[in-house]
Amino acid sequence: MSDLLVLKGSIAERVALIRQSLPAKVRLIAVTKQVSVTAMRQAYAAGIRDFGENRLQEARDKQGQLQDLTDVTWHFIGHVQRNKAKAVVESFHWIHAVDRLSLAQRLDQLAGVLETRPKVCLQVKLWSDSTKQGWSEADLRAALSQLYACQHLNLCGLMAILPLGLTSTEILSAFEQVSNLAAQIRHHENYPLPIHQLSMGMSGDFQAAVQAGSTMVRLGRILFGERSSL
Predict the structure, then answer these.
(1) What's the burial of 74, exposed, middle or buried (CB within 10 Å: 0-12/13-18/19+)?
(2) Average pLDDT of 16-20?
(3) 162 within 8 A of 214, measured Cβ to Cβ
(4) DSSP of 179-227, one letter per residue?
């Protein structure tokens, strides 16, 4: 599926075309950074119920304007700053980019105080990439006992963003590595975590991610166009 083909239509037409290419079990998250509330309402009318934001204040402003859409699920997909962790727990159903143990423990503490249980994806970085954050495989394995002790988080997924410049074969292999790691964690002898969700795949690589087992794709540009055009 080419971006050009999708972007020729309306938002509703793009959503419909992408839905046709996704298995029913794959959740389509519309990434709405710098996307207008008007465009978000158009996506909602086309059936989108999952919105992903990576800037806290922008997201909260939009949540205020979209309070009437009571069945929306909000996903925080950006880097979580420690001083904004409480607001993220308060405002989002899903937190996708938990990239370090100290953050997971802080979110767990806050969720306990707030009497909530957000769904969490652990962001992994299994490849060399100075522009990305995330757990290495070794660090994640070493932290499993401490993550297992987090009682107020629903640790249910892994999240990955691939480096730029990979070939199509490398992209598929990279996503398969994440899927295999999730399976190994699910079946860990001492500290199994229910990692059944894979937040993998963006506008340029979501088809390979789905092939490798992704259960959630995060699509922005292919739905709404380049951010500068909005």
Answers:
(1) buried
(2) 94
(3) no
(4) HHHHHHHHT-SS------EEEE--TTTHHHHHHTT-SEEEESHHHH--G
- The Cα-based distances of 108 to 12, 59, 124, 134, 149 in angstroms read 38, 22, 19, 18, 9
Q: Which amino acid is at 41?
A: R
Task: State the DSSP H helix or E strand holding residue 5, giving kind and residue range, or none if neither.
Answer: helix 3-7
Closest CA to 207 of 222, 196, 194, 193: 222
pLDDT of residue 129: 75
> Which pLDDT does position 225 carry in this prediction?
87
The verdict on domain 3-223 having CATH code 3.30.530.20 is no
* Beta-strand runs (E) in the chain: 27-31, 50-53, 73-76, 94-98, 119-123, 154-160, 197-200, 216-219
DSSP conformation class of 71: T
**Using one digit for the tens of pLDDT, what is the confidence trace for 35-61?**
999 999 999 999 999 999 999 999 999
